[in-house]
Fold these 3 entries.
Entry 1:
Amino acid sequence: MRIFLSGLMGAGKTTVAKALSERTALPRFDLDELIVQQLHGDHAEGSISEYFRKRGEPAFRALERATLERLIAEHPVGIFALGGGAVTSVETRRKILGAGLVVTLDASDEVLARRVGSGSGRPLLETKDDEGGDVLQRLAQLRAQRAGAYAECHMRVDTGQYDPDRAARAIWEMAAQQPIVVPLEQRTYRVFVGNHNRHTLAARVQDLGHVSSMLVVSDTQVGPAWGRGISTQLRSLGQTVTHLELAPGESAKTLESVDTIWNAALDVGLDRASLVIAVGGGVVGDLAGFAAATLLRGVRVAHVPTTLLAMVDSAIGGKTGFDTRHGKNLVGAFHQPSFVLSDVHVLSSLQHAERRAGLAEVVKSAWIDGEASVAQLEADAEALAAGDEEATTRAIRMAAQLKARIVTEDERESDVRAKLNLGHTLAHAIEASSGYAGIRHGEAVSIGMVAACRVAVRMGRMQPEAAARAERLLDKLGLPTRVEPFLSERVLSFISADKKRKGERVSFVSPGAPGDIMMVPLPLAELQEHLKHTGA
Ligand SMILES: NC(=O)c1ccc[n+]([C@@H]2O[C@H](COP(=O)([O-])OP(=O)(O)OC[C@H]3O[C@@H](n4cnc5c(N)ncnc54)[C@H](O)[C@@H]3O)[C@@H](O)[C@H]2O)c1
C-alpha cells in the first residue's frame, strides 16, 4: 500500500505523514528532502529555492517527477509526502493515482499562512514576495491555479479541522475502502466497490460537504428491497430525505418518469445544494441522472447501482437520458456523478438471468483491458456463474477501473470511449428489431461480441483461436453465443438505424487479442455482408 500526501504548503504533509507512518508502521519518504539530498550530491545548487531560481520551475518539476518515479519503482509500500506543486504535472497525477491512495490535505488560507510564516525557503511564496505580494494573497492564487490538480485525489482531509492523528485515522479508514478515482479535475469523483458497504453511504454524502436535502430515486422492485433502507440511513444525517419509487424496467424510461422526478424534487423545494441519489439499475440511474442534470440547470447526483450492468457500466461515466418513440437514449445529457457506491451484496436479490446478462459487459471490459483481466475472468468463471461475491467484486473493480480510465481519456465519446461499444453494433440491432422485449441487453451483447470476433477473424484482425477463447468464456458464464438466429435481413436492417453510424459507414469496434481493440470505419453493406457469414 502506497499513500501519497499532497496539498498546498503548510497543509501538514510532513506532520500527517509522520502520524500515518507511526499508525501503520509503513516507511515514510519526503520527496523534497530526497531532492535536496540529490541536489547536494549532483548539483552545485544546495536548496530547492536556489535550483528554482537558477533553472526555473519546469526543470524542477522534471527533476521532481524523475525522483518520484524512482521512489515508486523502488518502494511498493510507504507514506510519501509530496512537494506542494508535484501534482501540477498531469503525468505525475495519473501516475500516483494508479500507484496508491492520493490524499489532498487542505486548510483555510489563514491557517496555511500562519503555518508557513513569511514563506522563506518556499520558492513559490518567495517569488511573489519579491514582487510585493503577501503570503496570504499568494496562497489564494496558488489554490485557485491548482484547484483542478488537487481535486484529482482519493480523498481530501481538512487539517484545520482534524489533528494529525485523526487525519491519519481517517486516511487509513479510506485506504481500506480502496476507492477508484475518475479524475476529471474539479468534477473528479470516486467509485466505491465492496461487499456490505452500503452502510457507508451516509459517510460518503458527508464527504461532499454541504448537502441541503436529498431525493432518493428508486423503483418499486428495488425500493422495498434496498432503497427504503438507504433512505432511512440517510435520514440519520438530519436533512430532509424524500423517497420516490418509479415503475420498474425499460418501459418506464420515459419523459413522464423524468417529469415525475422533476415534480417530486420541486414539490419539496430542492435547491442547488441538494443531492439526488439513484438507487437502482441502469434505468433508474439514467433517469435520475438526467433529471439531476436538468433540475435548476444542474444539481448533484450520486449513484447506488443495484444491477451488475449498472455497477460495471451505466453508473460510471455520466451518460444520462431516456427513450423516445424514435429509439433508445436519444435524448440525454452528460452529467458526472458526485460518487458511485456499489455494494455487491445487493445483487443477491437480483434475478439470476439479470445478473448473468451483466457478465457480458464484464467480458467486454476484460477484452478491452487486456490479457491479465481476461485470464482472471477465465479463472473466476465458475465462481462468477455461481454468483460468488468475492469473484464478482473483483470483476466489478476491473470493469470500473477500465471505465474510469476510458472516461478520463475521452469523456464525451469522441474516440477511445467508443471502444466500449464492442459487440454493441449487432446487439443494438437485435434489441431494436425485437422491440426491446424478449432479450436482455447483456444477452444481445454476448451474441454481438461473438459476431464481432468472427467478423474480425474474417477481416484478418483476430486469430481464430482468440475468437474461440472469447466464445468459450461467454459460454462458461452461461451467456448465449449462438449468432445464427439473429442474422435475418430484418435484424441486419436495424444496423442502419444505429446512432453510432456516420454517413454510409459504420464505426465497427474490431477486437483483436485481449487489449487490442480498433475502430474500423466500414461501409454499412460490407459490415452486413461480413455479419451474414458469422453464423457458423
Ligand atoms: N448511462 C450509461 O452509460 C448506460 C450504459 C449501459 C446501459 N445503460 C442503460 O441501462 C439500462 C439497463 O439497465 P439494467 O440492466 O440495470 O436494467 P434495469 O434498470 O431495468 O433493471 C433490471 C430489472 O431489475 C430490477 N432490479 C434492479 N436491481 C435489483 C436488485 N438488486 N434486486 C432485485 N431487482 C432489481 C429492476 O427493478 C428492473 O426490473 C438501459 O436503459 C440502458 O440504456 C446506460
Entry 2:
Amino acid sequence: MTINFQLMDNFSPTNRTQLHRIPQRATYEVSKIYGILDEALVCHVGFIVDNAPIVLPTTYARIANQVYLHGAQASRMLKSLKEGIQISMTVTLLDGLVFARSAFHHSMNYRSVVILGQAVEVTDLSEKQAALEAIVNHMQAGRMEHTRAPNPKELRATMVLRLELNEVSAKVRTGPPVDDEEDLSLPYWAGVVPVRLQAEQLQPAPGLSQHAQSLGIIPFSSNER
Ligand SMILES: Cc1cc2nc3c(=O)[nH]c(=O)nc-3n(C[C@H](O)[C@H](O)[C@H](O)COP(=O)(O)OP(=O)(O)OC[C@H]3O[C@@H](n4cnc5c(N)ncnc54)[C@H](O)[C@@H]3O)c2cc1C
C-alpha cells in the first residue's frame, strides 16, 4: 500500500503500530516523524536471518516519504533485506536523563520512531545517486557539494535500498520524573539532565593539503550537532 504522503498530516496507526504501553506518548504526525528522522543520524534495523533475529545499526537518509539505506553489495543485511523480508527500522533521539526519587521511576526523555515494512533495491541510477547524496548530506546539509561524487565503480559496489513510510509510529517522552506521592519528600535529587549530541573540535585527516585544511567544513548551525 502506498500512501499519498502529500495529502496526509498523520500516518494511520495499524494493528502493528498502535502503541499499547503509555499510548498518550504516541504520535503519528507526519511532520514530527520526519523531523525525528532528519535529526537522528543512526538507525537500527531489525530482521530475521537464518531463523534468528538480529538488529544492526546503520546510517540512512529520508527523501520525501522514503528512507534509504546503503552499503556494500556483500552486506548480509542488505542482501537479506532486498529479498523483501519484513523489517523494523528504529531511530532514537535521547533528550534527557530522568532522575527520580525512587529507582523505579528513573526514565529517559526521548523521541523515537519505529518503521515497519519491506525494503526494495533501488536500481534506477538517478534515484540511487539522489539517495547517496541524501545520505552524505544527512551528516551535514550541503556536504555533497564539498566532496567527490561516487564514480561508476563505487556506484556499482554500493547497494541502495528504499523503505516506504507507511506503517510508522513515534513515541515521545518529555518532562520531569513521575514519582509516587509518598516519595516526594525523600532526600534525593530528582529532575532531568538534558543531553544532546554535540560536535567537538575538528580533527583534520592526515595528509590534508594546506588549501583543503583552510577550507574546513561548512559550520554546523547552532541547532545542529
Ligand atoms: C531511550 C529510550 C529508553 C527506553 N527505556 C525503556 C525501558 O527501560 N523499559 C521499557 O519497558 N521501555 C523503555 N522504552 C520504551 C520502549 O521503546 C517501548 O515503547 C516500551 O517498552 C513498550 O513496549 P511494548 O512492546 O509494550 O510496546 P507497544 O506499545 O505494545 O508497541 C506497539 C507498537 O507501538 C510502537 N512503539 C512502541 N514503542 C515505540 C517507541 N519507543 N517508539 C516508536 N514507536 C513505538 C511500535 O510501532 C510498536 O510495534 C524506552 C524508549 C526509549 C526511546
Entry 3:
Amino acid sequence: MHDGVSAATYHERTKHVPDQQWDRPDPENRPRDHKRYVDVPAQALGDRIQSTPVATLAALGGDPPAPDDPASKTDVDLEALTQRCYYAAGVLQEVDRGDSRFHFRAASCTGALYHVDLYPVVGDDGPVPAGVYHFDPLTCSLDVLRKGDYRGVLAAASGDHERVADAPVTFVTTSTWWRNAWKYTERTFRHAFWDSGTVLANLLSVATALEIPASVVLGFADDQVANLLGVETAEEAPLELVPVGAGSPIGTESRPDVDPLDYETEPLSPNPNSFPLIHEAYQGGSLPDGGAARAWRDDPVSAPLSAGRDERDSGGERILLDPVGAGRGSKAPLPVAIRRRRSCREYSEAPLNFRKFSTILDRAVRHQPLDCLAGDAPLLLNDCYLAVNAVEGLEPGRYQYHPTDGELELLQAGDCRDDVTRLALDQDWGGDAAVAVYFMTDVDGVVERLGERGYRAAQLEASLIGGRLYLACYAHRDVAGLGLTFFDDMVTDFFSPRAAGQTPTFHYVFGTPDSA
Ligand SMILES: Cc1cc2nc3c(=O)[nH]c(=O)nc-3n(C[C@H](O)[C@H](O)[C@H](O)COP(=O)(O)O)c2cc1C
C-alpha cells in the first residue's frame, strides 16, 4: 500500500537511549528559521494586531463552536485572519546572540528551529482575494502562490470533508524536514507533529476566543495537497488541514487544475542534508486519494484506546482536583498569555498552589477536534501521567491523571526530582520544576485501530494538549513551563506496570519560575 516504514519501526528506531552518541550540529550549516520566496508578490494582512479580550482560561474552557452553532461567527474577516497567523506562527520577539538573530515565535518549537509553516487557502468569500498563500512570519504578510479559488482541491484531497468543503479559509501546515533535522536528525518526524501541535493549539484557542468554527483534518491525500502548495514531500510535507469559518460551500464542480509551481526560495543552509527515514515514516502513513481519506475517518475513535488498562494493577488512592469554575480564576486575555509565554528553565522551590495546578490540568487536557476522534472524551489515544514534586497538599510521587473523573491516582509515592531530570536527558530544569507531565500511547494499539496514519494522530493529540498546557500555565503570572524531550523506554519503565506497552509522545514540565 505504501513504500514507507511502519510507525512502530520508525518509533523504535528513533528512541533516545542512554549512552547514545550525539553529533553536534554544525553551526555554519544551521538552516534559516523561515521560508523565503525569492520573487513572489505579497498580499498585506491587517496593519495592526487586534487583541481579543477573551480570557485564556475561558478560551481553553470552551470548544471552537460548531458551524451550525447560532453563536458562531462563520465568516473570517481580515482582522481574524491576521490574528490567527500572528498568534499561531508570528514572530513575537527578536534576540541577537553572537552573530545570529533569533526570531522567537508565538508557539514553542523544538530547538527554536521553526520548521512549521502556515499556508492559508482562501476562497471567493474570504478576507483577501481568493488564492493559495504562504504566511511570512517576518513581515506578517502573505506570499501569493496562486490566484483563484483552489479550495476544491483541498476538499477533493480530504474526501469532501464537510468542514473543508464549507470553510472560507483552510490553513495547511507543513514541516520542512531539514530545518529541524539539522539538530534532531530522524526524530524530526515526531517533532513535526509536536511543533505543529503547539502552533495549532494557539490557532484553535484564538478561534474559540473569536467564536469562529475551526477543527483539524488529518485525513487527506498527501501528494495532492503538496502539489497545490508546490512542495516536494521528501523536503517539505503537509501535516494538517485546519478549516476555519463556515457557510462558504464550494460545490464539487469547482476543482481547478493544479499546474506545477516552480518558485525559487532562498537556500536553507550551505549544505542541507537528507534523512531518508523521515520521509519513509511520512510515506508509511500517507493516503493515496480522497476516497482513502474518507475511509480513514469513517470510523472515528470515541472511547479511550487504553480503557481497562487501570484494572491491570491495584488502583491507588484517588485525589479529586479542584479547578476554578467557569469565569473564575485568572482573567489574563489569551494574547497576554501567548505574548508572555517563553520556555522557563529556572524554577524556585516554591510549591504550586493546588487550585492553580488543578485548573491548569483541567483546562489543558480536553477533547481535541480531530477528524479521527469523536465524542467528547478528553484523551482518546494517549494517557496522562505525572511526576509531582511540589504541589501544596499533594504527596510527591508518580500519578496517573484521569481527566474524565477530574482525579489523580497515586501510583507510587516518593520524591521524583532526580528521576525527572534523568528521564529528560539529564536536563536539570526537568527535576527543578514542580510537576512533570507525560503523555503516553500504545503505538501498536493505535495502528491497529487507525492504521499507520494513526501514529500522526496520537502524536498530535498529545502535542495539541501540550500547547494548551503552555497557554494554561502562562494564563497565570506566577506559573511557567516548557516542553522537554526524553529517554523513551525509561519513561515507560518509570510508570510501569501501569504504562507497560505504552511509549511517551509529549513531555511538559511546569512550576513556579525563579523570577516570580
Ligand atoms: C516538544 C518540545 C520539546 C522541547 N524540548 C526541549 C528540551 O528538551 N530542552 C529544552 O531546554 N527546551 C525544549 N523545548 C523548548 C524549546 O527549546 C523552546 O520552545 C524554543 O527554544 C523556543 O523558545 P520559547 O519557547 O521560549 O519561545 C521543547 C519544546 C517543545 C515544543
